[in-house]
Design brief:
Shape: globular
CATH topology: TIM Barrel
Number of strands: 10
Distance between the termini: 31 Å
Radius of gyration: 18 Å
Order of helices and strands: EHEHEHEEEHEHEHEHEHH
CATH architecture: Alpha-Beta Barrel
CATH superfamily: Aldolase class I
Structural class: alpha/beta
Length: 297
């Protein structure tokens, strides 16, 4: 396995994503709501917080400048870090515009002293939904070719930003492992293996699907976690299988599509209970930074 089973657990909470309050009244949307949930989850034991604050009133994506994106995230981060200065926070992509415009708000936040971790998605994938007829529609290509991936890794290294990487497809992971093998993977690299019940990419949340990723990870030192998009990472069994295999967890209302209307704190409590059952303690903020080798703030 890629990690020892006695490592303390990292928990990332993805607060909202494209989820809206008409689906779950507990989804945090405003700055005050995002700050409230961030502080509560960090106090509850999570170490990493991811938020989307780029959506319009109808949930549309994109349209903001990098400066506007940085200002939105900065309004959250200044308040959260005043209470939890060791927290690892990172924003979403700026979905409109060029590759440079997608990522540059993170460099602005880094220069302001508010960011140590940045999203860096090392591949391309078709994102969309199933239409009424059951076939894919309303999609777009989320694209990062090899040249762009190399540029992002170089920028992360230069800015001392820890790459937080979504693994939509196995090829994303193979790209990361190639950088690791070449000794070019930046410090702090963290990979989330994405599984999905209601998505049109990647693997379903099954034990065999996790084992396929673990086969690729054999011999690697990469720190990894699991997430189930459009489902429930705990009820699916994926969280337990990952913890038993030495992995970590991503939870939160961005991903959750299980029963009821839980809050992010409710989902965190469920994850912590599972960690206790498996016999793996939560990492402290300092242990999380040490495990990931995140650059000092």
């Amino acid at each position: 396995m890629a990690q020892r089973q006695d490592h303390p657990v990292l928990i990332e909470v993805a607060l909202n994503g494209v989820s809206r309050q008409k689906r779950n009244r507990n989804v945090p949307i405003s700055v005050d709501e995002i700050v409230r949930d961030s502080v509560a989850c960090l106090k509850g034991g999570a170490q990493i917080i991811h938020q989307h604050d780029d959506l319009g009133s109808e949930g549309e994506l994109g349209g903001a400048s990098p400066e506007e994106m940085a200002a939105k995230s900065g309004a959250v981060y200044e308040r959260v870090l005043s209470e939890h200065p060791d927290a690892l926070l990172y924003p979403t992509a700026n979905w409109g515009g060029t590759h440079e415009e997608r990522w540059r708000h993170q460099e602005i936040l880094k220069d302001q002293g508010l960011l140590r971790m940045a999203f860096l998605d090392p591949g391309s994938v078709n994102l969309g939904v199933q239409g009424p007829s059951g076939i894919p529609e309303r999609g777009f290509v989320y694209d990062h070719g090899f040249d762009e991936v190399r540029r992002l890794f170089e920028r992360a290294e230069e800015k001392k930003l820890a790459p937080n990487m979504a693994i939509f497809e196995p090829g994303f992971l193979r790209t990361i492992l190639a950088y690791e093998s070449a000794g070019k993977l930046p410090a702090g690299s963290f990979a989330k293996l994405y599984f999905g019940d209601r998505v049109l990419f990647g693997h379903p949340p099954t034990r065999k699907a996790l084992e396929a990723y673990l086969e690729l990870l054999d011999g690697s030192r990469l720190v990894w976690a699991v997430a189930v998009l459009g489902g429930d990472v705990i009820r699916s069994g994926m969280a337990r299988w990952a913890l038993e295999s030495g992995g970590h967890l991503r939870i939160g209302l961005e991903d959750y599509a299980g029963p009821g209307s839980p809050s992010n704190s409710d989902l965190l409590e469920q994850a912590i209970t599972l960690c206790e059952q498996v016999g793996r303690p939560l990492a402290s903020s300092s242990e999380a930074a040490e495990l990931l080798e995140v650059p000092v703030r």
